[in-house]
Amino acid sequence: MEISNVSEIQIERAKFKPILPNILRRRLVFIKPAKGKPTESVANQKKIQEFFRNTYGLPVVTFKKGLNLSIKKKVVKVAILLSGGQAPGGHNVIAGLFDGLKKANKKNTLIGYLGGPTGILKNKYKEISKKVLNKYRNTGGFDYIQTGRTKIESSEQFCSVKNNLEICKIDALVIVGGDDSNTNAAVLAEYLKQESMDKCIVGIPKTIDGDLKNQFVETSFGFDTATKIYSELVGNICRDANSSRKYWHFVRLMGRSASHITLEVGFKTQPNIVLIGEEILAKNMTLSEVVEGIVDVIIKRSRNGKNFGIILVPEGLIEFISEINELIVALNDILVEYADVLLKFCSIEDRKSFICGKLTQKLSNLMVSLPAEIATQFILDRDPHGNVIVSLIETEKLLIKMVQKRLMELKKEGKYSGKFATITHFFGYEGRCGIPSNFDANYTYALGYNAALLILNGFSGYMSYIKNLVQPPKQWECGGVPFTMMLDMEKRDGKEKPVIKKVLVDLNSKSFKEFIKRRDNWANNEMYIFSGPIQYFGPKTVTEMITKTLQYEHNTQKQ
Fold this sequence. Notes:
Arc Repressor Mutant, subunit A, four-stranded parallel beta sheet, Rossmann fold, alpha/beta, 16 strands, 3 domains
């Protein structure tokens, strides 16, 4: 019997044909770019303009019907690299870019740099062939050319990029990544212009965290698929909890810098408690206040005989609690200043005692109040720069310990008599490489195809955008938004640098306001939704379903 590493679902997904927006379905000579007015950065316009003298103020580009004969004459060699964490749909970006280039001219070629930015620095690449690419269409992961997190920042690195682009005779480079990767793309586009190199740099918005978006980039690719995967898992847990009725499940979800994933999974599953970091920050809530809010729901449910429930916790929650952030900053300073002294202590407890003596009374009290194992994580786990690795702090376990402590106090006071048994979960990597949903398969293919058009029309310093996403794919709008339009200044490593800022959950948004309306009912009842796995086949009401976030923001969600 022949053994194959291709699953039945992969065989079926290979048959899926992404739907292009109507404007991209035309012959390329009948697609014309329409330029808008000059643009400005979102803030710090003068400083951004000083950094980007050659690429600042570019107009937004929209593709329209119209004669464009110049596009057919060009023969180009294009390179693509995948940067940062994986997101479902990356292979379809490559496929869309490849097909768009070949439709314009069969002599056009595409190469893929291997291992992300490291590939372009070491000039390691492979030519993208139709035969091999066909095996990766509509699949998850970035395994065709892999990815990496190397940052291109130094003058030596930029010089290497320039030289390697010249050696390979590359006309354009497509960078697929999140806010940091696209910031690097913006800087690279400016650098090449300064060096008088006629090469296009185009970005693609990628991150499952959903924190790269604006008026043109309505969502980053991968968010739709990842939240559907997490929602299936959380929905299964909701049903399990409702079946046995004896556990509180604390579920930590990926999304360190923003709570978009947690909010979306909350809409899709309707658990009893959904913590949104941005709200906690806005209210300047202490750790004790967060715990009290959880305890309040637990007690109310217990009085109704419900000693079970589901709590969603965003991965980056700890950074949204001001006093914890203050503690982390103070610890970073102490651990650097007294590094040699701390090495002399034989026990963790002695080390903690010394550190507490160097903290302010307020922060010392906070440190003492933390569960022992969490306090140890704050002290021991450091990154290469000596800072606390916040993502390694198991926030869900911290909350459980503190909730348990508070419930014990209330039990002694006769204010609580229920049971509190817990189970913890962390869903992160499970969502990054799933087979893309129909939405993400269509969206990523269109982003790649659209990037080919930007390149063929000579637009450098742009991010490929596809908007009007609440409509069917045929009605989507396409174009390019200048990187510089998305930039602001931010202090990093003690210096002000231009960055594309992560977009946090907007507490004034329609989606968050909808969440506020609903969460009290979720807390007190079992309104759980069981979405099941991603639906690739079946009625369009299910297979073509977009995220609740997009539905609420664009007023298409039925009340």
